[in-house]
Each structure stands twice: as C-alpha cells, then as structure tokens.
Amino acid sequence: MEKRSLEIVPINWIFQKFIANSKSAYTPGEKICIDETMVPFRGREYIPTKGHGYSIKRYKLCTEKGHTWNASIYVGRDLTNDLTQTASHNVTLKLIEDLLGEGRTLYMDNFYTSVPLAYDLIKQKTHLVGTLRFNRKYIPQEVKDAKLVKGAIIAKESPEGVTVLKWRDKRDVQILSTCHLGTETVVTRNKQKTEKIKLKCIVDYDSGKSPVDVSDQLASHSTALRRCNKWYRKLMIELIWSTTLVNAHFLYNLNSVNNAMNITSFRQNVICSLLEDYVVKSSARRHSANAVHHMNRKKRARCASRYNLMAKKGKMVDGVKKMASQVITVCDQCEGNPHFCKICFNKKH
Question: Can you tell me the distance from the alpha carbon of 71 to that of 74, in angstroms, rounded to the nearest whole number?
Fold first, then answer.
C-alpha cells in the first residue's frame, strides 16, 4: 500500500461508510458542484488565503442546498493518479465518476477548471461551468490578450462546444462553459433593485456554486470543534457533528415539507433523541422533615414569617402599621420558595 494512503487509516472505515450512506440516501439533480473545505488544525496544510491558514483540506461534491454527496481527504500527492494531469483534474474525475454520462452540469472555481478537463467531461456527457485562471494552458490567445472596456465580451468556441470567454465588469472575469453561448445575457436586480445586464453563464455559475458555501455555513452553526492533538479526532468530530448532520437536516426537510426546521432546532432534537435513554428525570421535590433547607439569594421580598405575624395581629407602632422587612434570601425546600430573614429561618427550621 502507498505510504500516504496509510495516513487516513484511523478513520478510513467510518469515512467510507459516510460516503456510501450519502450516495444511497439521495440522487443528485442536474446541478452539482465541487470545492474544497478546510478543517482547522495546525500541523497539516498551510494556505494563507483561507480563513484558517493551517488546516486539513477536504474536497467535496455537493448537490443543491448543501448536501455532501461525495468527498475525499487530501493527504498529499497520490502517485497512483495520472501524473500527466493536474491534481485538481484527477480529484474532479474521482469525485464525479459515479455521476458521469447522465447529462449533469458541474460548477467549479478556477482552482479546478481547465480546458483538458472540459474535454474529458464532454466525452462523458457532462457539462462544465467554471471560472478560469488566466495562466491556464490552451486558452485561446485572442481571449487571453484582449483588452476590454467595461461591459465588453470576447468569446471563442471550439467545434466540440467548449466556450472560453472574457467579460469586463469591475475587472476581467474569465469563464469556461460547455453549455452556454458567449452572447447570452439576462437582466438581474441588485439590493438597490436597479437592473443590470449580466452574462447568463455567470448568473448560473453564481447559483450553481452556492451548495458548498451553504454546507459550510450550516456546519459552522454550534460547531463542536475543539483544540486537540490528534488530527483524525478533529476530522472525525467535524465529519459526524457537521457534515453528517447537515446531510440529515437536508434529507429531513426534503421529506418533511410541512414540518421543516432550521439547523439549530434540528441539532437540538437530534441531541435530545440520542440522550433520551440516559437522562434520569428528577422527581418533584417534596417538603419533608428530613429535607435539608438552604437559603438562596433572589429578588427582594418581605419576610414571610414577619409579614404573616404582623398581618394577622395588625401590629401598630406609634399609630403606624409596622411592615415586615424586605430580604433577598429564600428557602428552596419550602413550598412556594418563601422569603425569610435569618432569624425567622432559624426559628422555622
């Protein structure tokens, strides 16, 4: 076995079980996307552009609304892959291999998108839409060198249907698509409700790329990640408490439209159901002679013993009714948790 493949052995069995269950529980629709996600941990990979610089990197294939359908953990260069292609090219084909040939559209960012990958996916009847880095190979020279003004477009399409285009907005944006025409535009509205003309491929890319972001956002709510020395423990906690729970939340809402709940309520219900057999219900407290009475501090109120005594006898001092003093101490064992001053508490108990 390759040395690097041994590094994931401590959690490989449960990771593979998670992948198998995710695939069997749901069949993806027409749009899918691939991106990486980071699990904070010092000592693995360092990517300064990410929110967590030192992290364990995972590749995820997500369907709509954040459901993780397939994933892999980056443990270093895999010498069993095709070394003539980039690592991102090989990872993409590995994650999507069970979904090829069914006419789906794959959305990716510029870390994965390349012209050779687009041709490989077209052969497998799968479309590709993604942003494209300017230093990638096989980009048409006319597109690469074009100097555009704001709103201008330049596009080139190959006979196989691979379109590479550049569009100038606030800056140059380069897109590769196998299912869009370079001149297709749509009218969108921003937060100020002003209309703006945008390329259809960019609008579709923005919507198609969102599932991974949704998955990471839902997983970040009430995270269970804590500092630990073993990377596989942290990865296991993130896998069970975040990714698996987000998948379960998606499937629950999919099959319970009338009883849909947010991720926080769903997480609480899961916890309560798991702890149901371990929680011992306490019986109602009863006042007894053997009960130990304690004085606790709460809001100010009048001493119960002095108030009852003065109210019944109507004690008057110099023609003015004497009021019971206000105290902040209560007895937590007596019925009603009455307030007592220290003198009356000792007399009564």
Answer: 10
Q: Using an 8 Å Cβ cutoff, are 119 and 160 in contact?
A: yes
Q: Cβ distance 304 to 312 under 8 Å?
A: no
Task: Encode pLDDT of 74-102 as tens digits.
Answer: 877 776 677 778 888 999 999 999 999 99
| C-beta separation of 258 from 290 below 8 A | no
What is the predicted pLDDT for the residue at 1?
38
How many residues are listed for the chain in this entry?
349
Is 6 within 8 Å of 57 (Cβ atoms)?
A: no
Here the tokens at position 313 are 């006898």
Residues of the chain with pLDDT under 50: 1-6, 289
Cβ neighbours for 335, distance < 8 A, ≥ 6 positions apart: 287
Q: How far apart are CA 80 and CA 3, in angstroms?
A: 12
Condensed to tens digits (0 to 9), the pLDDT of residues 228-284 reads 767 778 888 888 888 899 999 999 998 887 888 898 899 889 888 888 877 666 655
Q: Are 250 and 66 in contact (CB under 8 A)?
A: yes
The CA angle 109-61-256, to the nearest 5 degrees, is 125
CB 151 within 8 A of CB 199: no
What residues does 37 pair with on adjacent strands? 58
Q: How many CB atoms sit inside 10 A of residue 206's CB?
A: 12
Tell me what pLDDT residue 115 has. 93
Q: For residue 107, what pLDDT is reported? A: 95
Q: What pLDDT does 197 receive? A: 78
Handedness of CA 62, 63, 67, 69 (dihedral sign): negative
Is-contact 165 153, C-beta < 8 A?
yes
Q: How many CB atoms lie within 10 A of CB 71?
A: 20
Query: Are 153 and 93 within 8 A, CB to CB?
Result: no
* pLDDT given at position 185: 76
Sequence-ordered list of residues with C-beta below 8 angstroms from that of 189, at least 6 positions apart, any chain: 195, 196
